Automatic annotation (TrEMBL):
Organism of origin: Kwoniella shivajii
Record-annotated Aminoglycoside phosphotransferase domain positions: 136-357
Membrane-traversing stretches: none
Name of the protein in question: Aminoglycoside phosphotransferase domain-containing protein
Highest rank taxon of the organism: Eukaryota
InterPro entries in UniProt: AGP_Transferase, Aminoglycoside_PTrfase, Kinase-like_dom_sf
Amino acid sequence: MPELIEWPCDVPGCQNFVCEQGAICYMCFEVRCDEHDKSPLHACREPQTNAERQQRKNNTKKRYLGILLSKVEEYKHEIIKDAERHGLGQCELVLPTDTEEFFESSRASGFNIHFPLNWQDGTKWLLRVRQDLGHRLPRQVRELSIRSEVTTLSILQDNGIPVPAAWLPAYIGTDEEDPHSEPPFDYFFYEFLEGKTWTIPKHPWYAMDLPQDTLSHFIEGYAKHQIQMSLIQLPVKQIGCLQPSKLTETVEAGPIIARGTFQNSKPPYLLGPFSTQRDRYLAHIDATLRYIILGAVSRYDCLDAYLWHLELRELVSHSDVLAQPIEEVHIKHDDEKGDHLMWDEEGNIVGILDWEWAYTTTKGEAFAAPYIFYEDIDYITADNIMTKEEQLLIDCYERHSRPDLADCVRGGRLYQRLRHIGQYADHNWKRGFREPFGPNPAPNFHPPKYDVDWRVYMMKRYTDDVGLADIMQRSRCTIEKSEEEARKWHQEKE
Ligand SMILES: [Zn+2]
Ligand SMILES: [Zn+2]
């Protein structure tokens, strides 16, 4: 859930705002400011066992789904009227009658919940409802998100990609701002696709856990789909999420739909579109630096996280590759967990789901392998050598006479490493991030090997940075103290 915006504390009468990861408590779905985030004011903070925690979470989710279901029920006639505008005759919206069963089937649901919508002629649609955990995003963000998903699906369908057809609801389709016609939840219509998804077993430290022939089949299917994606020509040359264009009556790149730290905590919330990769990554890094100063992310290692993003800023600023003008863009799915692919009994891909986060970007980034192909312990410890899965993907592309896409996989590390903007973790070895930027990533930049020395080096390099001064004060840290720590660390090491 894109939650890094300012949420008002849910305690009645409290005027405080909260902006941080997990602002909406995962156990009670309430927002609590620091003052009200303690026991007994916040019952979830009371000591409890894992089983009790799970029980609390389940009860909240059940309550939330029950409320959502009753809202959909109340709005049922409007939804049916809205669907029937499309001239397919009469339809029926099937809502669950057994709430326990509904809860069980929705347990693993992600950002959306689906209700079947059946037409008299046998056509099947789904009502795709966004889950907001009782905290609705600002209208502009919600609408851009739904418009972008529907627009992306339409473009993909027009180009023969097997995705569900999608239709905007009336309350978003109209140009006029009319807050009264807005339903109490967000939805759009989605075609029902037959097929099964595979859950791909994957631990962050290890490769996909699939038998060799299943893995080869999976990668071959993925490669064929990506080849089809590479043939789509878009009337767009910017990085952003697709939106309908009023001007050209086709599509245009709109802002990036908020996710992680790639947004603002206050209106206008969304960033982009961007005309170069450099502008895009710098905007993401700067937004992250602002969130670190706010205490919204990396609360407990804010100094290193801040310094790390200053380093990334330098690397991105000096990259010639990222500064290139953009000649063509492609759609990147951006939620490729493997279970987004639907297969038929014969092992063919019959559908690709979950385009909510898709955006347009350069060919190099769009055809770099998704994380399930490369994320493992070697990648974490700075290795940038192609994995077995990436090599299989390269082989597929070459077999299908697409050496250009094979090259995108080979050059993908730069973009894969930059996906970590906003998610600093000291167990990710820094060397692995510098390497894809080439041998001299920035002028006079010679970062020391060990983090204790790197910290001192970066603080000295950025003595004029106002945000850094603030973070150092908050962390009760000085250059002298850090130098002393480094000295001790080396002594102990020897
Ligand atoms: Zn709670
Ligand atoms: Zn409060």
